[in-house]
Amino acid sequence: MNEVAPLHVLVVEDHGPLRTQVVALLRDAGHAVEEASDGRLALQMALEQPPDVLVLDLGLPGLDGVQLCRALRESASVHVPVLMLTARDSLDDKAQGFAAGADDYLVKPFAGEELLWRCRALSRRHRLGQPHVLVLGALRLDRTRGRAERADRSLDLTPIAYQLLLHLAQAWPRVVTRSELVRSVWGDEPPESDALRSHLYLLRQALDKPFGTPMLKTVHGVGYTLELPRA
Questions:
Q1: Which of 61, 96, 103, 158 is least enclosed, having the fewest CB within 10 Å?
Q2: Could you write out the DSSP letters of every residue in 167-212?
Q3: What digits encode the pLDDT tens for the residues 193-207?
Q4: Which CATH architecture fits 133-226?
Q5: Backbone angles phi, psi at 126, to 5 degrees
Q6: What distance separates the 2 farthest-apart alpha carbons in the chain?
């Protein structure tokens, strides 16, 4: 951990022993850590001094994790990367978290080292302190509200299709492998069926079908990338 700059991490967890464990883990790795056990207090802290990463439990008093994340996206002036830390591991629960604006998901119980590298990855991925809106040519992604537009036309995306598009946009112009896309949505527990294919199809229907030039490009044998039309 010494080779990277320390992060400012806000840990929001109402289970005292687990919160203490996570805080100690992050501090031992050299990070500056604040903690909260109540959703309303955590939202106030995050808005007053946005952390580099917010580690957020789903079940909280005051505001639950989904409510807190949604309120943060609506009110914060910068994009705060949110790692949801929860025992709820169903696809529906993950979809709700991503729809509220979460950036990553870690299911309890988890390995401490995995939490550390996910925090590091989130801090790099979101280029700390940058505005919510990500613009690539005619594509506009509002990370506060989980909305996307192309050529000023709103895209009707499912939560998972939006998450895939956001990951591709943040990685642009790099080609993203299938395994990376799967990991960005389902973490280390991918579904048994080839769900990625279905969600990429839905993404193409919304992102490309209404327009003359496709943006989602398949790089055979490698993965996927976004191609920006010249016009």
A1: 61
A2: HHHHHTTSPEEHHHHHHHHHTT---SS-HHHHHHHHHHHHHTTTSS
A3: 788 999 999 999 999
A4: Orthogonal Bundle (1.10)
A5: -100, 5
A6: 55
* Rounded average pLDDT over 50-69: 88
14-36 pLDDT, tens digit each: 999 999 999 999 999 888 899 99
Count of beta carbons in the 10 Å neighbourhood of residue 189: 12
CATH superfamily of 8-125: Response regulator (3.40.50.2300)
* 138, burial (CB in 10 Å: exposed 0-12, middle 13-18, buried 19+): middle
Burial class (CB in 10 A: 0-12, 13-18, 19+), 59: middle
Contact 118, 104 (CB under 8 A): yes
- In whole angstroms, give the CA distance from residue 200 to residue 208: 11
